[in-house]
Specification:
Bound molecules: flavin-adenine dinucleotide
Helix content: 25-40%
Oligomer: single chain
Largest sheet: 8 strands, mixed
Structural class: alpha+beta
Amino acid sequence: MDKDGKTMDEDDKTKEGQQGININVLKQGLCTGCSACVGLCPSMEYYKDKTILFHDCNLPKGRCFTYCPRTPTDLEALRCALFKPEDMVWEIGAFKGLYMTRATDKTIREGAQHGGTVTALIQLALAEGIIDESILADQDDQFLPVAQPIDDVDEVFGKAGSKFVVSPTLLAFNRISQTDTGKIGVVATPCQAMALAKMRVNPVSQDKIRMEKLKLVIGLFCGWALDWRLFQELLKEKVRGCRIKSIDILPSKHACMEIVTDEKIVKIPIKEVLNCVRDNCNYCFDMTCEFTDISVGSARSEEGWDVDKGWNQVIVRTSLGAKLLALAREKCILEFKDVPDKNIEKLKKASANKKRTCLMNLVQKTGSSDDLIYIDPEDPVVRQIQTGRIYVEHIA
Ligand SMILES: Cc1cc2nc3c(=O)[nH]c(=O)nc-3n(C[C@H](O)[C@H](O)[C@H](O)COP(=O)(O)OP(=O)(O)OC[C@H]3O[C@@H](n4cnc5c(N)ncnc54)[C@H](O)[C@@H]3O)c2cc1C
């Protein structure tokens, strides 16, 4: 059923070009705004966190449909192609280790969202020649993200901090990867990382060369992203006239978004923030950004948020991710501290909860557990959730 309550006929489901995107993704309210479909042809555009059909295109198949993270996706084939089977943990994806880290450089930490691990790792990857440029997210003075390829280590710091609206990161990736650029790194949210995995594992022939340039994907844990227009209105109402220095979502027990301005700290109840979440995020199956080399989120420990907000929790997924983290340790780019034993279980639980909620929402949308729109009902992780333990707590 689409947003207007109309059911799709079987013919609609077979369209695999722009029309398929329109019917199966945009009209279904599933578009994540990841921008994987933009920058590859003149027909699709990105405008202020929305995907626009700029020109009609009647091609029966298209890269827009092939790479979209919300068109039917064989998740297991992606997992098998990108990761070692022995590393797979069904709740959180490929797993070589969980770490708690922060940038050794205090200046990075002060400008970063949490511990500055992402900024420090991207700087290291550039400095070591692992990548020649990285696609990073910045934002304009209205909090609308912009994505840019950055090749200068010194410029990475200026892009630190989370932008809670989806960034056109894959548009920037699509554009730069079609030039004669070298090795590319991307910092991605889960929907963007999934689209990159689809591009990497099953590139159409004209994309094979450009996809070989993608050398590193660093993922951000993600509960949801905000609709830019709604978020703008909320900010105008709550922090009128003040200059915003930072924005963060506190752990679930605090139930708020914290906005630090030059005059005061504003706490917006999470209920009001949730009104601004993009609809499509209710259909996301991935909290820990599984299709990456390394995924990074905020730390959780007994020491409480005042300490944790200066640290990251890091999942290493691939040999490259392990190599980069080992290098960061060896060169003292990152500081490490012990991870509390229970953190891995908490992460698994939170991640499984997001998957379960996604499945419930998809079934509610289609009216059938055999139709999960973009997810295969026979996917082994889906089967685990259907047959496994039921987690009742929600941990953001
Ligand atoms: C929409 C969103 C939701 C999130 N939800 C959670 C959550 O539920 N739980 C959790 O633990 N963590 C979440 N995070 C991740 C968290 O906010 C931090 O990004 C993470 O802990 C890394 O911190 P850091 O200090 O290492 O990052 P920094 O060193 O500050 O670097 C952050 C990097 O991310 C890039 N970036 C920022 N925003 C975006 C974006 N929208 N898209 C792509 N790249 C971006 C920046 O360019 C920068 O390079 C979320 C992040 C986003 C963007």
